[in-house]
Write a structure and sequence with these properties.
Blueprint: E1 18-25, H1 35-50, E2 57-62, E3 65-70, H2 74-81, E4 87-97, H3 100-112, E5 120-127, H4 136-150, E6 155-156, E7 163-169, E8 173-177, E9 181-182, E10 193-198, H5 204-214, E11 217-225, H6 233-245, E12 254-258, H7 260-268, H8 275-294, E13 298-300, H9 313-322, E14 327-328, H10 336-346, H11 349-352, H12 374-381, H13 386-395, E15 398-400, H14 410-414
Bound molecules: adenosine-5'-triphosphate and magnesium ion (MG).
The site of adenosine-5'-triphosphate (ATP) has 19 residues, from helix 5 and strand 11.
Length: 421
């Protein structure tokens, strides 16, 4: 649709009038008695997302809708709200007092303010307040007639309109919206508990983290790098990825653990073709111990079945056996291209594509075993004091909270000194 109508400026401060944003609730409207808990969580997350926006804001709830407004530009509200998980759609809107004259005037302003000549429109009113003197279809007809009379060049088309003007009538105020942006849907982050994501620098694990968040898991992250045998490039990527992911949730922590020496110990113990799976087992053991500190009830990885040799069913079973917590794999049935496309839309692809020195390629055998047997893995692991190794790894973790600086202007963020390694 060309020629978006512009939002009329506020008229008076005291009456409910001016731009706002309508956020249509997603799956939480299916919840029964607990729905208020989900709504509270959603609003907490929305408030967290609005932090540092640079002006006062307010939120209120009508049935299955959250209304957001404030003394900041509507575009800024939209930008923040679109990253909050749990809304099906995000709609720029204008609110007016619930009387027919105000509603009609706002509708004429909205559709007259830049709609393309020759465009078609439809009015769809909904009364949440059944006391309103007109029925919904009477409101539709009344507004439609006034718009036709006052805005030349528009036509009504109820079947396939270019612009649909939604009019939602509450007891005191009415919201008019005519642009609908898709939200992220899903459940409010935190409503399903906490998870610890094994975050590499690749495409998969950030997408897996995002999917986990969309099912209501608040995520912390752990990244293993190959220090002291690799450069810190993978840590920079993990930091940038966690910062991007934290824009979708109240910021989680990133734990960075240098795995290089322990990887060498496994190699010296004769892991051979089992090296990669043995490393992965060490990662989930360490992550499980770390989870006790972060309060996580599950681990999340970016595994997709059969994508690479280390991700065969047998190898995943071997990894799971070493984990003290359930290992969730949101991407188990995803193709690589689907994952890359999703990474593009959530904003992590541009970071994942950068080159790095990944700890998994350090000491990787020329051919990875696709069927790592538990007895062989155990006999390699027996040559290390695993408890001691895991304890030392957890104790050595460096903790960061990427994204706590999101309130700063973008330029200041870019200049932030690199992460310690
Ligand atoms: P990704 O794109 O997420 O790196 P991948 O296709 O490279 O995945 P693997 O390297 O086999 O696959 O890793 C499988 C999963 O193991 C990753 O998705 C991630 O969850 C975890 N993982 C791998 N390497 C690391 C690491 N260095 N630090 C933390 N987790 C890791
Ligand atoms: Mg990887």
């Amino acid at each position: 649709m060309s020629g978006e109508p512009s939002v009329p400026a506020p008229r008076t401060a005291s009456r409910p009038q001016g731009p706002c944003v309508l956020l249509k609730h997603g799956e939480i409207f299916l919840k029964g008695r607990n729905r208020h808990l989900f709504t509270e969580r959603l609003h907490d997350n929305l408030r967290a997302a609005l932090r540092g926006i640079g002006g006062s804001t307010w939120i209120k709830t009508a049935q299955n809708v959250t209304v957001l407004g404030g003394e900041v530009p509507q575009e800024a509200l939209l930008e923040r709200a679109r990253r909050v998980i749990g809304f099906n759609s995000v709609e720029p809107a204008v609110r007016v007092p619930s009387d027919l004259d105000s509603i009609t005037a706002a509708a004429v302003d909205a559709l007259g303010g830049g709609t393309r000549n020759g465009a078609t429109f439809a009015v769809r009113a909904r009364r949440r307040d059944k006391q309103f003197p007109l029925t919904s279809s009477q409101v539709d007809a009344h507004i439609g007639a006034r718009v036709l009379a006052r805005v030349p060049g528009l036509r009504v088309d109820l079947a396939r309109p270019d612009v649909t003007l939604a009019v939602e009538i509450d007891r005191k105020e009415t919201y008019l919206s005519w642009r609908r942006l898709p939200g992220l849907s899903g459940l409010p982050v935190g409503s399903s508990g906490r998870a610890l994501v094994l975050l590499s620098g690749g495409y998969d694990s950030p997408v897996a983290a995002h999917r986990a968040m969309r099912r209501g898991l608040a995520c912390d992250f752990v990244h293993f790098n190959g220090a002291p045998y690799t450069n810190p490039s993978s840590v920079y990527k993990a930091y940038a990825l966690a910062r991007e992911l934290n824009r979708y949730q109240p910021p989680g922590a990133l734990h960075v653990i240098a795995l290089g020496k322990a990887q060498k110990q496994l190699a010296v113990a004769g892991a051979g073709r089992l090296q990669v799976v043995a490393q992965r087992r060490l990662m989930v053991r360490t992550a499980s111990a770390l989870a006790a500190r972060t309060g996580a009830e599950a681990l999340v990885t970016g595994d997709s079945l059969g994508q690479v040799a280390s991700q065969t069913l047998a190898n995943m079973v071997a990894v799971d056996e070493a984990a003290a917590l359930p290992v969730l794999r949101p991407l188990i049935g995803w193709d690589k291209q689907e994952i890359i496309d999703e990474a593009g839309s959530i904003g992590t692809a541009g970071i994942s594509v950068l080159p790095d020195e990944d700890c998994c390629s350090l000491l990787a055998p020329p051919r990875v075993s696709t069927r790592a047997g538990l007895p062989q893995l155990r006999s390699v692991e027996k040559r290390l004091d695993l408890d001691e190794v895991v304890e030392a790894l957890v104790a050595s973790a460096q903790v960061h909270r990427p994204g706590e600086e999101v309130d700063e202007p973008a330029q200041a963020r870019e200049c932030r000194p690199p992460v310690r390694t």
